Amino acid sequence: MNVDRRSVLASAAALGAVSALPGFAQAAIPLPAGFERMPLWPATPPGGAGVRVTEVSALRYPELGTDTLYQDHVVTPTLTIVRAARPNGAALLLIPGGGYRRVSTGLEGYVIARRFAAAGYTCFVLSYRMPADGWTAGADTPLQDAQRGLRLARSLAAREKFDPARVGVIGFSAGGHLAAWLSTRAPRKTYAPIDAVDRQPLGVAAAALMYPVVTLRDPFAHAGSREQLLGATPAADRVAAYSMEDGVMPVPPPVFLAHAFDDRTVPYQNSLLMAAALRAQGGAVECQLYEAGGHGFGIGAKTPAASGWSDAYFTFLHRHGV
């Protein structure tokens, strides 16, 4: 059976949860062999006093296992390590999408990580909290987890045998928005440092933004992501502050973008806006636009027109020393 992220997200709301436990709920679904999961934070994540949601992990197709895992209302964000059999000395932080409503951990995390681990990259799959679940940081909550995830991954460089200067990030859909936020804007403090991990730097060597949410302005905004981040009727200054084409730092890291012209969920103009903003700041940019692929094409047989993006990103990474 072939599955893709679009079918998972379309029917996820109608599914019964495979597990529905408070806190570390995804423990009820075993990890694939060889994967290692660790909590992002040593205790409760910051700003959780008002959080009342229950974390849920579920499989769209149980017979396909964790390749179709998704998570709702994450309260225990995690980092999952997918190791390379023959490490090349570089690492990647993977940020799955889900419209800032859930995390598509399987199809945009584990599946992609296997592909890149096979090419030698040590991969870290991020599970992150949602902005509308009552965390004190609100819209900045996912960025807290992305920053902590990058720092935690980098702190493991000696143990996992990669160069901490050769760390990239890949984000998908709303995860692409978060990856852009993490990699192309000047780092800012989103939480009080709590341990030695937080002394790690936040820069990345390269980024990939896959069919990313970029702008929160109409007519090209993904309305669902905008509402989850900022509410139903956000003020214009808030929309501007969270539109990633604004605020790109001077000389950002090299960025690879990929989008399909027939994406009916996040218009391809999001990638064009980001490419232009990066170029305006002196960034190195590659933008792959595919004739077909829709939204959430990931890696799979259902989207042959867009299936070459991973090889193109490998070439891009090698060109930039990652």
From TrEMBL:
Cleaved signal peptide residues: 1-27
Residue ranges that the Swiss-Prot or TrEMBL entry lists as coiled coil: none
Domain BD-FAE-like: 92-278
Superkingdom, taxonomy of origin: Bacteria
Record keywords, A-Z: Hydrolase, Signal
Gene3D superfamilies: alpha/beta hydrolase
Name used for this protein in its record: Alpha/beta hydrolase
Phylogenetic classification of the source organism: Bacteria, Pseudomonadati, Pseudomonadota, Alphaproteobacteria, Sphingomonadales
